[in-house]
């Protein structure tokens, strides 16, 4: 399957996952960390999942609370994030990204 287009917003999402690749993340937390609204974030997550770069699962946190989706990079997603972030680093080094540290 072809790799999806990596927009600056997708790169932000990949960067967050890359910081802690073994961690499962909620969409709400990703939205807060990236500054992306749900109308931008969730299509990115669905596209990455469709390309098998993310896995998603439902998690029930407590009785009576609806389950929530969590997401995690696959090994292919981790490799794509590593490559794309390395390619973007020279450009990012010349300016301070709003979503990153540094």
Strand content: 5-15%
What structural category do the secondary elements indicate? alpha+beta
Order of helices and strands: HEHHEEH
* Largest sheet composition: 3 strands, antiparallel
The strands making up the biggest β-sheet line up spatially as 1-3-2
Mean pLDDT: 87
Q: Any idea what the shape is?
A: globular
CATH classification, class level: Mainly Alpha
What kind of oligomer do you see? single chain
| Total domain units | 1
Looking at the overall shape, the CATH architecture is: Orthogonal Bundle
Percentage of residues assigned to helices: 40-55%
Written overview of the protein:
The protein is of the alpha+beta class and 102 residues long. The chain has one domain: Orthogonal Bundle (Arc Repressor Mutant, subunit A). The chain has 4 helices and 3 strands; from the N terminus they run H-E-H-H-E-E-H. Helix 1 crosses helix 4 and helix 2 packs across helix 3.
List its salient traits:
single chain, 102 residues, alpha+beta, Arc Repressor Mutant, subunit A, three-stranded antiparallel β-sheet
SSE layout:
Layout: H1 8-19, E1 25-26, H2 27-34, H3 38-50, E2 54-59, E3 68-73, H4 75-93
Antiparallel strand pairs: 1-3, 2-3
